[in-house]
TrEMBL record, chain A:
Stored PANTHER family: ABC TRANSPORTER, ATP-BINDING PROTEIN
SMART domains, sorted: AAA
Native species: Caproicibacter fermentans
Domain ABC transporter per the UniProt entry, residue ranges: 6-234
Lineage of the species this protein comes from: Bacteria, Bacillati, Bacillota, Clostridia, Eubacteriales
Protein name: Daunorubicin/doxorubicin resistance ATP-binding protein DrrA
Pfam family, one: ABC_tran
Automatic annotation (TrEMBL), chain B:
GO MF terms, alphabetically ordered: phosphoprotein phosphatase activity; phosphorelay sensor kinase activity
Every Histidine kinase domain range: 93-307
Gene3D superfamilies: 1.10.287.130, Histidine kinase-like ATPase, C-terminal domain
Source species taxonomy: Bacteria, Bacillati, Bacillota, Clostridia, Eubacteriales
PANTHER family: PHOSPHATE REGULON SENSOR PROTEIN PHOR
Domain of life: Bacteria
A cellular component annotation (GO) from this entry: plasma membrane
Classification via InterPro entries: BphY/WalK/GraS-like, HATPase_C_sf, HATPase_dom, His_kinase_dom, HisK_dim/P_dom, HisK_dim/P_sf, Sig_transdc_His_kin-like_C
Organism annotation: Caproicibacter fermentans
GO biological process, one term: cellular response to phosphate starvation
Catalytic activity line of the entry: ATP + protein L-histidine = ADP + protein N-phospho-L-histidine
Keywords: Kinase, Phosphoprotein, Transferase, Two-component regulatory system
EC number: 2.7.13.3
Name recorded for this polypeptide: histidine kinase
Amino acid sequence: MNDAVIETKQITKVYGEQTAVNRVDLHVRKGRIYGLLGRNGAGKTTIMKMILGLVSITSGEADLFGKNVKGNEKQIYPRIGAIIEMPGFYPNLTGTENLEIFAKLRGTTKPRAVQEALEVVGLPYRDKKTFSKYSLGMKQRLGIANAILHDPELLILDEPTNGLDPIGIAEVRSFIKDLSVERGKTILISSHILSEISLLADDIGIINNGVLLEENSMAALKKKNGKYILLQVSDTAKASLILERKFHTKNYSVQDAHTLHLFDTFLDMAAVNKALMLEDISVISSQLCNDTLEDYFKRVTGGEGIA
Amino acid sequence: MNWTLFFLVLSCTFGCAVIFLVTRLCRVQEQLNIIENALKDIQTGNLNRRILTRKNDMTKSICYSINEIAANDQAQLIRLKEAEQAYKRLMTGLSHDVKTPLTSLVGYLEAIQGKVVIGEEKEEYIGVALDKAHHLKDFVEDLFEWVKLDAKEQKFQFEDCDLNELSRDILADWIPALEDRKIGYEISIPETEYILRLDRNAYTRILNNLLQNTLVHSEASNVTVSILENDKQALIIVQDNGKGISPKDLPHIFERLYQCDESRTAGGNGLGLSIVKELVMIHGGKIEADRPPEGGAKFTIVFPKAL
């Protein structure tokens, strides 16, 4: 398992009396989008800041690209692009000029870096509008353009869709997805909006009060939270016959020799069980799975839920 | 006196030149180190690695080239991975598309053999079992054909034939099926002769699959097949007045194993249209799917006259 781009080992941040982040082990794997989900003040931004070295780590370690951050800053940080809160741009310069300054400071990977970064986020190149006249959405986009300007391997985006309108959110979501799918970037993204993360992330980490409660792949979570009746029976062939003849449904799928998923969840489970028993099919288990992701998060976070 | 001043200026200039050259050298040295590290990283498979370079670096163009090579390789690798994933989806798809009907087929046959059903009911069971067997056979045939096409193993026999006559022949076979389902049809094919170089079987397959697709998925009450020709190209248009293809699905419908209906119950197998596309491309033609403003779905095939 050495494809971890970010690996934190028990990182902790204490501000005075308050523990903001408590022994977090985060594993962000190469080429995947990792969604850090938590309510406001849960510690998402602090974790990102610690990874980026913007605040000191009280205890624990952070490894990036398989190397400890401490002592390797000069090699590691050029390979990361980030936006944490509002990026600092010069208000009296245009977006293009601002990016050109950053390009000069940081270096570039190709001749037309600034122009291409602006194209990705959908901002005009060489526009006359100064940054101070930008709308919140444009500022946010320029921030992302700045983060991808040097074509980094790893992107750390702290609530990149904050303050965007619904269409803007969908656009940003789609180009973040493209960066991962088409360019193989690794992305760590935080949000307090569940639906946002569930549409985007491959892996998900749920954080609450500074503690990482759960870390899992989205596929595994979705599997756990499908809507179907899980039937374990002695003979799926016979069982499927009964489902088709007695309950007139073809909406099922045979998983293996003893497991069936029945997608018509409105069927009366007691009647199904009884019919199966009458035909000498032993029902090992039958259960209704219809947890939504939301229910699941509520349970994980101890009933408080995430908006 | 003058000489002293002269020497002083000379040594100062010389000193400056030395300092300048040494700093340049140091920067190049540093840059070479970075390049070496990055190349090692790229060599071990991290194609996301980029080298940052500044405007005045002597190594700038080398860095740009390395970055470009890595980016191109990365893009290629991602395409390969996508193909691999499609195969994986094919395999998981198979488990549903084959296992479920096969299991239920076994269920029906066991019931017949075990004399659970007799008389009329038995006949009905045999009918259902036969239907399922046919469906499976079709699926396996489609799959086999698609795999052969994908591996470019299929041999084609291109010969000059009359597109209009061939199309009429194929459509004639469809009329009973359309009338059976009470679907109205309009066929407008020119009476003249139009010679194209075609593989008869492949062209038959193209039209059959398109009509099959309309029958199974469109819920249409009317279907129109028209052929328009000029001296450069022939257009074959299959249009229906059914539910159409949703904008979400439209870009994907020619992808192998793409099914608009996620529960996979509609009876298709996600292979028909991708076979059509492959076959059209083999003839040097193009196919497009549309949502015409008047509703329904519209497929347009363009065959160039000179192949």
